[in-house]
Amino acid sequence: MLSSDCFSPQNIMPLHVLMVGFDEAGFSPSCCSGFASLEPMASLEWVTTLQEGMAQIELGNRYEVIVLDCRKAGGVWEEMCQRVEGCQGALIFGVIAVPEKDVDQNRLIEDVVGSRVDETLAPTVLKWVLRHAQERQQLLVEQEQLRGQLGEVAYKSEMADVASTVLHNVGNVLTSVTVAANMVESVVEQSPVVLVNRISELINGHLEDLGSYLREDAKGKRIPASLEKLGVHLVEEQHTILKEMKALVRNICHMKQIILSHQGMVKSVGHAERISLVDVVAHAMELSFQPEDDMWITICRDYQEVPTVLADQHQLLQILVNLLRNARQAMRQHTLDRHELTLKVKLKEDDERFVVMTIQDSGIGIASEHLSKMFVRGFTTKPDGNGIGLHSAIVAIKNMGGSMAVHSDGFGQGATFTLLFPVLKEVALA
């Protein structure tokens, strides 16, 4: 609904009116009063022929009202009927001669082009046309304002979506960071490195007779063997810590790339790069599963030799981590003692321009009534879910030129996600 002051003079734009065929000096005073009553005053442009008027329109001049003098011979109204599409939605008003028969006077003729009235009704109808044009123009101005406001709301909504996606994906990586940090903390807390200090104290206490101490003393004779075992253990410990620290660095870099990639989504158009899908899957598996998962999950890998695919590496990694962690959670919720996760990468059978990847789990499955909603933003079957991950995933996959689908035979029957990636065609990422 329009505000009460939407048609106040300060909010109304002046009308631009094209007068075709009229003599400005001899124009009807009663019709002139219709223009004089407008506030703000209308801008009038006078031309002799319709051809001159259309030439002005073609030059880019826009008119809200076109008034035609149809009293003369020459069929100006018929010509306007043929050229009305070029008038950019202007209200068209024609003035016809007063009929000779009194019964035909005060005529108003309306058709798809506009309205025609005889000279007796022209002043009254012209005032109505001008008022209507003024109101319509103001409505168009308000429509543009509303469109701008909707655009701003849509932009803010998109930014909120980006922020939610960033938090969701960073949260996934933070889980792996936490696991790695806890592992390093546990290794350091249980480290036998304190034995080095105790052995050093024993040796320092027998520096004068160190040789005989190491050969003859019961404690001294255990020192060489203890040092050997300690050395082996500390080397293994170093390898473990280095492995976890490298994983920490890689995951922190990945979080940085997640943020940068989403900043890029907001600011500009990016481009897909050629990547090894198997390498990205391997990285995603490292982020999604822990060594102890081997005790209850059998992972089957069927990787065929395929070309590199076109995709955004970091976005794809986020997507795969989300899918794999969903699969792990689904299997955890099932009552089977042992589960199976199958990963396949191969060329599409009927179109080798695409590579197909499938992730199949033996988890709780998806109810048939939920399948069509799985990629809808906000839909989730998890008590603590937010419905962001799968929606963001399918949007990103489509932006890479690919597709994603899900299938399940029902509750308790597991689920299969199928991802399709282009091999050859370069695509821009939105």
- CA(first)-CA(last) distance: 36 Å
What is the C-alpha radius of gyration, as a whole number of Å? 39 Å
Number of helices: 11
The count of domains is 3
Low-confidence stretches: 1-7, 265-270, 426-430
Provide the CATH architecture of the largest domain: 2-Layer Sandwich
What's the total count of β strands? Answer: 15
Helix content: 40-55%
Largest sheet: 6 strands, mixed
What is the CATH superfamily label of the largest domain?
Histidine kinase-like ATPase, C-terminal domain
* Overall mean pLDDT: 81
- Report the CATH C-level class of the largest domain: Alpha Beta
CATH fold group of the largest domain: Heat Shock Protein 90
Strand order of the largest sheet: 2-1-3-4-6-5
Order of helices and strands: EHEHEHEEEHHHHEEHEEHEEHHEEE
Beta content comes to: 15-25%
Shape: elongated
Content-based structural category: alpha/beta
